[in-house]
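Title: Request for sanity check on D-inositol 3-phosphate glycosyltransferase prediction

Description:
We are preparing a figure and want to confirm that the structure record we downloaded matches what your pipeline produces today. Could someone re-run it with the sequence below and paste the raw structure tokens into this thread? We only need the token string, no images.
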Amino acid sequence: MHGPTAGPASAAPSVTLLTEGTYPHSHGGVSVWCDQLVQGMPDIDFRVIAVTGTGRESLAWQLPGHVRAVQALPLWGPPPPGRAPRGRALRRFLTAYEQFLLALLDPAHAHHFSRSFHRLAEYASGGTLFPALRGEAAARLLARLWNRPHLATAAARPTLHDALAATDLLEHALRPLAAEVPAEGITHAVSGGLATLPGLVAHHRHGTPFLLTEHGIYLRERYLGFRAEPYRWPVKALMLGLFRLLAIEGYRCAALVTPGNRYNRRWEEHGGTPPERIRTVYNGVDPTAFPPAGPEPEVPTLSWAGRVDPIKGLETLIRAFALVRAEVPEARLRLFGGTPRGGEGYRTACEALAAELGVGGAVVFEGRVEDIRDAYAAGNVVMLSSISEGFPFTLIEAMSCGRATVSTDVGGVREAVGECGLVVPPRDPKAMARAALDLLRDPERRARMGEAARLRVIEQFTLRQTIDAFRAIYHDLSGPNRPESVGVPVHEPVPALAMAAGGAG
């Protein structure tokens, strides 16, 4: 699995990448970014702590020799070993757990989150946290707490069944606290949320510098995703409270936060991150690896690349295509990308929508493609229909290939495109259809736009710029004058971040 490489230079820092649902066990934009980062720095020792699904996931990437170890932390695999506390030890645990739950449920107690969170981390290290959360006492404690009259959850009259569901979700979500955290080097979380747990614990216990990179806004995506979850509102409120306070704790503890675009930076400032500890680093591609795509298809074709997932907004794209097809009857829509486990129902719903709109025969789910460049070459216009994004690789790759693009105005999309593509509101099929039709009907404009897009990538978004920026950051954080995280009071930024997240979408 590991190819032979020279060992890292003695002065080079060691880096532990913290991932969730991505590298090195799956493909996708953030996984590509991680692989590029690792491959581009053979002089640096890397380790990976990966939050996964079941623990049965195999490696999806060929790891170079300077990736020294991979520790997988499955959320839904067999429960971590350990024994539940009893008697006086159980009462002490429940006291600490009550503080933690109140921090999630009651804004007046949010300032207790950091202390109670790290107390639970100690229980996780001792092997008692997860058995305790699987016990009846933990669920009954929650059932009593969130029915207190002054809490917002009480209005929904949560039941013991709700408490059991919420406690089970918490037990799984907190499993990354069982990680063997590094005392040396740097931890680098490549997203917010559960991936940050080992980094926060390492920072608290050992002072290990914690670096946080956000490609998308994890908290915003949880707010969007929980709309479709089958749980009652009190369960959702508890879990979103966890994600909200984890975001704030991550911003508070990070020595540096590196958003992938200016849009993310605004969220991070809302969360209380001092501006001097935020440094924007754009994603980059190698323009030689994504050369001009060559001749366009003869049949008018819209192409799309990504994973088949609700956050990618494929319903909007299919509805827009139906409007395009009404005016260009020969048009086709080709969708390239895999369907992650658990996403099969969404793909089936998209196929049913295409059939309902009368365009089922013209919409093709191509599945994973061996060479992603084929996906961009397949279209006269490359589409991006997401409802949430960071700084999407598929967009800058398509731009490097010289294809005209139509994209939704989310995340860092407008920063990527500039004047070299068309940008439309998310969830607006009519606007997307108009933009696609404008480009399909004007080959000269498509050509000009594609040439300008490739030039923009070469000037601003190359892989070499990205790697050089992070190499410098790693050395800065590991040096004798490394920046320290600032002790921002945890409770102060909560309302601003809560309001921003509550209005997302």
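Thanks, this matches our download. The two ends are 42 Å apart (CA to CA).
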